[in-house]
């Protein structure tokens, strides 16, 4: 084998390896888009069923994100099918140019998946902000409830004078009772002395 034949063989092998790498890269790209789109849809549905939706904006964002991932997923499946047809046409010599359908599908997949990622990121940021503000409101309500409890204890001091006034009434009543008892005793003693004096005179 001459040197020219060796160089030609190397060029053929290099070209074959390059084409194989190109096909593998394109195939892995499509597989990654397919897997990530399906995973994104699953994550969004799990978030909705687990945590629910707290506003109409959150519902719209979740719907847009799911729709974008769904478009990317369906478009990728169509790309796999169209790739098969395109390769058959190239091998049979029917087509020697780029497939316009595949070109459109590539753009659709890229934009749909990108928008799905953007909407998912917005959902994550809004969820984090909502969680933070909710915790702040709960802490503020707890602080207010503690302050209100302290005010109610301070008002208890106003009950002290009323308690003393209530306690002084029984003492007054007992004093009045004692005075009336002493007066009645003195009256009875005076009447008895008068009767004794009248008996002695007789």
Shape: elongated
Average pLDDT, all residues: 76
Count, helices: 4
Radius of gyration: 49 Å
Specify the helix fraction band. over 70%
Q: Beta-sheet strand percentage?
A: under 5%
Low-pLDDT stretches are 172-176
How would you portray this structure in words?
By secondary structure, this protein is an all-alpha fold. The chain has helices at 3-51, 56-92, 100-155, 160-201. The chain starts with a helix and ends with a helix.
Fold blueprint:
Blueprint: H1 3-51, H2 56-92, H3 100-155, H4 160-201
Q: TL;DR?
A:
This protein has 202 residues and is mainly α. It is 91% helix and 0% strand. Helix 1 packs parallel to helix 3.
Notable characteristics:
single chain, 0% strand, 202 residues, mainly alpha
């Amino acid at each position: 084998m001459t040197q020219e034949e060796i160089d030609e063989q190397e060029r053929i092998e290099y070209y074959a390896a390059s084409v194989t790498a190109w096909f593998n890269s394109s195939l892995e790209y499509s597989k990654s888009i397919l897997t990530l789109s399906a995973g994104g849809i699953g994550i969004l549905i799990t978030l909705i069923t687990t945590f629910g939706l707290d506003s109409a904006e959150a519902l719209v964002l979740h719907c847009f994100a799911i729709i974008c991932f769904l478009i990317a997923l369906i478009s990728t499946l169509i790309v796999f099918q169209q790739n098969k047809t395109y390769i058959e046409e190239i091998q049979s010599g029917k087509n020697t140019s780029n497939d316009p359908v595949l070109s459109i599908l590539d753009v659709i997949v890229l934009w749909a998946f990108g928008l799905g990622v953007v909407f998912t990121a917005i959902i994550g940021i809004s969820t984090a902000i909502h969680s933070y503000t909710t915790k702040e409101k709960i802490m503020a309500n707890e602080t207010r409830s503690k302050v209100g409890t302290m005010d109610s204890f301070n008002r208890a001091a106003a009950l002290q004078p009323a308690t003393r006034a209530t306690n002084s009434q029984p003492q007054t009543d007992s004093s009045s009772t004692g005075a009336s008892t002493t007066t009645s005793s003195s009256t009875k003693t005076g009447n008895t002395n008068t009767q004794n004096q009248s008996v002695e005179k007789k």
